[in-house]
Amino acid sequence: MQIVSTDHRVGSGVTIELRLTDLRTGQPVEGAVIYATRMDMAPDGMETMTSPVTALPAEGPGTYLFSTELTMAGGWRFSVAAKVQGEPETVQAELELRAEP
């Protein structure tokens, strides 16, 4: 899993684009069930500073979009858990991004 862009502006309605790729084939992963998301400021030592995350309609194969509010400048962590067809275990990632004023 990777975030397409790690630099964002502080504000509401910020779109986070996540790309899932099968590491064995290099192909985009379609139909993943993303069931756990969390946005917090753990990279700046403020893990309790959280923001809600809402899933948006996907725009293409292997691309998953989310809307969130980045309430202040600094480092943010986007934690994601997903069920992927063909994978026995849950796929999890903790991805970091930055919010600029």
Can you tell me about this structure?
The protein has strands spanning 2-3, 7-9, 11-19, 33-41, 46-51, 53-56, 63-70, 74-83, 91-100. It has one domain (2-100): Immunoglobulin-like (Sandwich), CATH 2.60.40.10. With 101 residues, the protein is mainly β. The chain is globular and about 40 Å long. A hairpin with a 6-residue loop joins β6 (53-56) and β7 (63-70). 0% of the residues lie in helices and 60% in strands. It starts with a strand and ends with a strand.
Low-confidence stretches: none
Main sheet properties: 5 strands, mixed
Give the count of helical stretches. 0
CATH architecture heading: Sandwich
Strand content: over 45%
**Oligomeric organization of the protein chains:** single chain
Can you list the strand order of the major beta sheet?
2-9-8-4-5
Kindly report the name of the CATH homologous superfamily.
Immunoglobulins
Rg, nearest Å = 14 Å
Q: In CATH's first tier, which class applies?
A: Mainly Beta
Overall outline: globular
Structural domain tally = 1
Task: Quickly give the structural class.
Answer: mainly beta
End-to-end distance: 26 Å
Helix content: under 10%
List SSEs in N-to-C order.
Answer: EEEEEEEEE
Jot down its keywords.
single chain, mainly beta, Immunoglobulin-like
Short structural summary:
The protein has strands spanning 2-3, 7-9, 11-19, 33-41, 46-51, 53-56, 63-70, 74-83, 91-100.
Architecture blueprint of SSEs:
Layout: E1 2-3, E2 7-9, E3 11-19, E4 33-41, E5 46-51, E6 53-56, E7 63-70, E8 74-83, E9 91-100
Parallel strand pairs: 2-9
Antiparallel strand pairs: 1-3, 3-7, 4-5, 4-8, 6-7, 8-9
